[in-house]
Structures are given as structure tokens and as C-alpha cells.
Design goal:
11 strands, single chain, alpha/beta, two-stranded antiparallel ribbon, seven-stranded mixed β-sheet, 7 helices
Length: 205
């Protein structure tokens, strides 16, 4: 094989890798497992996964769990992880799919104008989107849930209905290219359904 042929193959490989990039959008106080499980599972499948946040920095994730006597979950420090790029650096056209973890991050990120542009771009292009737990607060904020079937953390049922969605209390709900789930105990069902969509719409080649 000539040098030129090798360069051509290398460039083809680069284009293929670009065509198989998946973006995770998150920030501080995201639920540790809801970021890192899809990050590792999708990489295992062969996708190139990037994490975007308000800025390039080390993110502090959290762990939400239940304690006896508490009416809601408690929050403890979780893992730290570096963001690969800032929202302002994201070119949505380079990515085939989007993952939106939960935790507390979606609550304060939903007003971020750069993130809102990213989210809208994925929905406008009908690319696969996976959202979990409080992640649907982001997609609700841009009006992308109206008329759709979704699930989310059960306490968000009213928020989902207000956004015009039909809420279903299920492990995973698939509505076209949108795959939603309640929380990290549902990870296996969530990723199984999301990968089914991905293999159809944006397979690893």
C-alpha cells in the first residue's frame, strides 16, 4: 500500500470517527452515574463521546440517594471529571446523538443560551436524544416535548405535563428518536433502547 493510500485511509478513518461522535451536555452537580454510565457504555460500543459544560474545567458530580426519615433524596459529593469543551465551542453538526443526564445540573443549565441552541439543533435535525431523571427539564425548556411521550424522575410528572408531554412511569420510553428514563436504576433499559435507535439512525461504521 502506498503512502498516499495510507493517508487516504487515515483521513477516511477520521471522517468516520467524526460521524460517530456523541455529545453529553452537563455541569456541576450532575448525577455521577447518569454521566459516567452512558459515557463508558457508548465508548464501549465504539462511539467517540465528548462531555460539554458551561466551561472547560473539572466538573464536580454528585450522588443522590435516600436516607431513612427523609421525604426526598439527599445529595453527597460524587466523582470529578473534566469537561472536554464548553457549550460555546460545540458544533452540533459534528455529533450524531445527544445525551442529557440528570442530577441538579439541568435546573440551572436550562437558561443557558448556548446550551439551548445546541439542544434545539439536535431536535430540529431529529437526531437521537437520550434523557434521564431531571434531564428532561432541559428539553422542556426549549419546547421540544410537546405532543411526545416521555418519562422522567417521577417528581417531574407535572413538569412534563406542563411541557405538553404525556408522562409514563416506565423504565424507558421511546418516542421516535427520543429515549427517556426515570433515573440511574433504569440504566440498562435506557441504554438498551437508546442503542437500538442509534444502530438504526447512526451506526458505528
Amino acid at each position: 500500500m502506498s503512502v498516499q493510500d495510507r493517508i487516504a485511509l487515515d483521513r477516511l478513518g477520521e471522517r468516520t470517527a467524526m460521524a460517530a461522535k456523541i455529545l453529553i451536555v452537563t455541569g456541576d452537580a450532575a448525577e455521577s452515574l447518569e454521566v459516567l454510565y452512558p459515557y463508558q457504555r457508548l465508548r464501549e460500543e465504539g462511539y467517540d463521546v465528548h462531555i460539554a459544560a458551561p466551561a472547560r474545567k473539572k466538573l464536580q458530580f454528585v450522588v443522590h440517594d435516600f436516607e431513612p426519615g427523609f421525604d426526598t433524596y439527599t445529595e453527597k459529593p460524587g466523582y470529578t471529571w473534566p469537561a472536554d469543551l464548553a457549550f460555546s465551542e460545540v458544533d452540533p453538526g459534528q455529533y450524531v446523538a445527544l445525551v442529557i443526564p440528570g442530577g441538579r445540573a439541568p435546573e440551572y443549565l436550562r437558561g443557558d443560551p448556548e446550551l439551548r441552541k445546541i439542544l434545539k439543533s439536535f431536535f430540529d435535525a431529529d437526531k437521537p436524544v437520550a434523557q434521564i431523571c431531571h434531564g428532561p427539564l432541559l428539553t422542556a425548556a426549549i419546547g421540544s416535548l410537546a405532543g411526545r411521550r416521555v418519562t422522567a424522575y417521577p417528581a417531574l410528572e407535572i413538569d412534563m405535563q406542563t411541557a405538553g408531554a404525556t408522562f409514563q412511569d416506565a423504565e424507558a420510553v421511546v418516542d421516535g428518536t427520543l429515549v427517556s428514563s426515570r433515573a440511574w436504576p433504569d440504566h440498562s433499559g435506557w441504554m438498551r433502547e437508546f442503542l437500538t435507535v442509534l444502530r438504526s439512525k447512526a451506526p458505528v461504521t
